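REQUEST FORM: STRUCTURE PREDICTION
Request ID: SP-0412
Submitted by: Lab K.M.
Chain count: 1
Length (residues): 335
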Amino acid sequence: MAEQGAKSLGPKVGLTTTIPVEVVLAAGLVPVDLNNLFIGNLLAYQQVSQAEAEGLPRTICAWVKGIYATLMAHPEITGVIVSCQGDCSYSQALGEILAAMGLSVIHFKYPYPKDRQELRREIAKFRARLGVSAEEVAKVHRLLQPVRQALSHLDRLTWETGQVRGRENFQFLIASSDFGSDPVAYYQKLTAFLQEAQTRPHRHPPVRLGIIGIPPIFLDLWDYLEELPAEVVFNEMPRQFSMPYPFGNLVEQYLAYTYPYEITGRLADIKAAIQERRLDGLIHYTQSFCFRQMFDQMFREKLALPILTIEGDRPTVLDSRTRMRLEAFIDVLRP
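STATUS: Completed
RESULT:
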């Protein structure tokens, strides 16, 4: 049954997107970002086909089908936290399907339009559902600040000195949605990586790129761009998942998070990155059957930088046509 408390969720709790993970950790639960679990599976492509074989339509986002199949492959995850507003309508429908299948489903809603008081109420309701106090959540929030600061440092080493590569940046930032299900181990791995990265020579790529849009489902995008050569020094959404703003409380932190709210916040964030990171061009990744494809024209109208839009469907390597388009785009940007 949906909207049950923490006791019915089990020790591991699946997340369909980035939500206030501090609440989950304060409840003594283990957060598992189902997107990361899905795309990290060597059988991710087959999982999408499996979901379709079980009845999910071909014409919905592969990420949603991947989440569904991942849950079927991990029966130890008996509870899921679904963002029913601020992510996508597919996630809302997926939550209803999972609840009907017997999983414990808790919904979290980002207010739209963005509203500080509404967000405060939603986080309070979320805390109540998981049975934790504001003080307990605030304690976890404070404990995570060194981790988030280290991620901001990693991001700076990507665009300022080039000591961290675009793929490395992406992998660490994308994992911050659940901190690899173990914040302590994640922080140890992150600090060890930063110590090694800071010994590397500075790099100055001939073409500096930003990737905007939802995280790409392509498996080799960053590696191929380096071959051209170009370097991704701005991963928009993974950076947002890391919460790069040094706010003192949870409400302000998730209010500054741009993904669930109006496109104007994302545009302001991208414009700032273009200036600060001295970007030469942007790659706008769009997912097949995702409503966020509609923002492509607005990006082109509002961002004064060359933009290449690419579309992906299933977890696979770049196809030859997309490779050719990327190569031509980099050729235009190369000095």
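NOTES: The CA atoms of residues 167 and 233 lie 9 Å apart.
Reviewed by: T.R.
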